[in-house]
Amino acid sequence: MGFIEKTLGVISPGWAAARAQNRLRLQAYEAAHPSRLHKSKRESRSADTAVFAAGTSLREQARWLDENHDLVIGLFDKMEDRVIGAHGIHVEPQPLDLDGNLHGDFASQLSALWAEWSVRPEVTGMFTRPEAERLLLRSALRDGEVFTQLVRGNVAGLQHATSVPFSLEMLEADFVPYTLNSTTGQQIRQGIVVNAWGRPTGYKVYKNHPASFTGFNTEFKTIPADNMLHLAQRKRLHQLRGISLIHGVITRLSDIKDYEESERVAARIAAALGFYIRRGDAQSLDDSGEYSEPGAERFYNIAPGMIYDELKPGEDLGMVESNRPNVHLYEFRNGQMRAVAAGTRGSYSSIARDYNGTYSSQRQELVESFEGYNVLQQWFVGQHSRPVYRAWLAMALLSGIEIPPDVDRKSLYNALYLGPVMPWIDPVKEAQAWKANVRGGASTEAEWARARGKNPQEVKRQRLRETEYNREHGLVFDSDAANDKGVVLDATSKESDDSKTD
């Protein structure tokens, strides 16, 4: 209490307490108090409880939109392009020799085996590794999560595609039911077996898809956590199951689809209407209010340049004025798409396919949005690509690959994981800007290499090998700084070979 409250407390403690309470209320956060203008909606449930209540509904709505809404289809397509790309996550083995340098021969051997395995890496034999990675990413973003079982060694009924006995079984989120919780002897939360610390130790998985044509299947199998990868979009701590990427914009996307459909229907109706006849002569009506003469309902074939002069006394010809499509539809739709991009780590230009703007504005948007793509890329690499490569390499080593004696065994699992990098809007401007920054000391060559998705050390090693090879074989290119005289000829400066001789 302050001085005034203490003084009032001597005379009237009730007044003092009420004054102190009202002062605290005035000093509290305004947003914490619901009012007529502020509803103050709250979320007090745990993360698992919230996902349990809404996860299935959000997943099914997102799937429906991905099947029927062109904007959602384009959104997930663009996520596949930016995060995975056409060639998938590129894995470059980096085993080192005992001196700490890259062991090129053994790295090349591992790369060749990895490329061979990537042709048919999963149990159905339907997808290549880039295709499988794009499907896994799309399922994880749309459904909130996806599971991948690591199938090692000889399994009944399964024939691995390569000499390395290792394959992937991709499972949608439906295979692990939300409704399966604790039973006697095990702590199960939403189909996941966890220990006392909340760490997953196993997964309860349907042997067949629960919505398949074979009927509802209640037969489960338990997959140990060491053999299962769980790629999940988690928004809160202590959250086991994932939530759809578009969970916060589903309502907006549905409204956009309904609004555009209404506008299209209105435009079709307006385009189908021609003209109308306003009838005002009461003498042509009978006692019932209908037209007395036969064939009163009139139809006309409208043709270009037609002249209509068959109006009866009191009739007037009116034209239907179409105000569709709405001239503000484009502006309104783009405004909604900006909000969708903000809620999905996406880029407005890429999602809406609206590429208007200057070079600076486009590059600023690309730089800001690509950081979101990088977050998703690193999430996918950490939760899927790196564990898959390491599990494959372990099985490859067990299958009889000879390790050279000069390879540092601690570095066997070293690898670079490279995905799509930020594209250059104007390559000439981008290259000149980086070159100016490096020459001016504001940036380093390593930063330049990383901005292009390359490993700086590997770039240096490749440059060294190329330069040494060119010098050894007498090849002269101005890519070697020693051969660059600093003279650049433009397209107008032409010097024929004849002028150089004699």
**Distance linking N and C termini:** 103 Å
Q: How much beta, percentage-wise?
A: 5-15%
What class would the helix/strand composition place it in?
alpha+beta
Physical arrangement of strands within the biggest beta sheet: 4-5-6-7
Counted by DSSP, the helix tally is 14
Mean pLDDT: 82
What kind of sheet is the major sheet? 4 strands, antiparallel
Relative helix content: 40-55%
Per-chain topology:
Elements: H1 3-11, H2 13-27, H3 47-68, H4 70-83, E1 90-93, H5 104-117, H6 129-143, E2 145-152, E3 166-171, E4 188-189, E5 192-194, E6 200-206, E7 220-224, E8 228-232, H7 250-272, E9 275-278, E10 316-319, H8 329-342, H9 348-352, H10 359-398, E11 415-418, H11 427-440, H12 445-451, H13 456-472, H14 497-500
Antiparallel strand pairs: 1-11, 2-3, 2-8, 4-5, 5-6, 6-7, 9-10
Helix pairs in contact: 1-2, 3-4, 4-6, 7-8
Structure notes:
There is one protein chain. The chain is about 40% helix and about 10% strand. By secondary structure, it is α+β, with helices and mostly antiparallel strands. Among the domains are: about 5-30; about 260-280 and about 315-335, no CATH class; about 430-480, no CATH class. The strands form 4 sheets. Strands 4-5-6-7 form a 4-stranded antiparallel β-sheet, with no helix packed on it. A hairpin with a 5-residue loop joins strand 5 (about 190-195) and strand 6 (about 200-205).
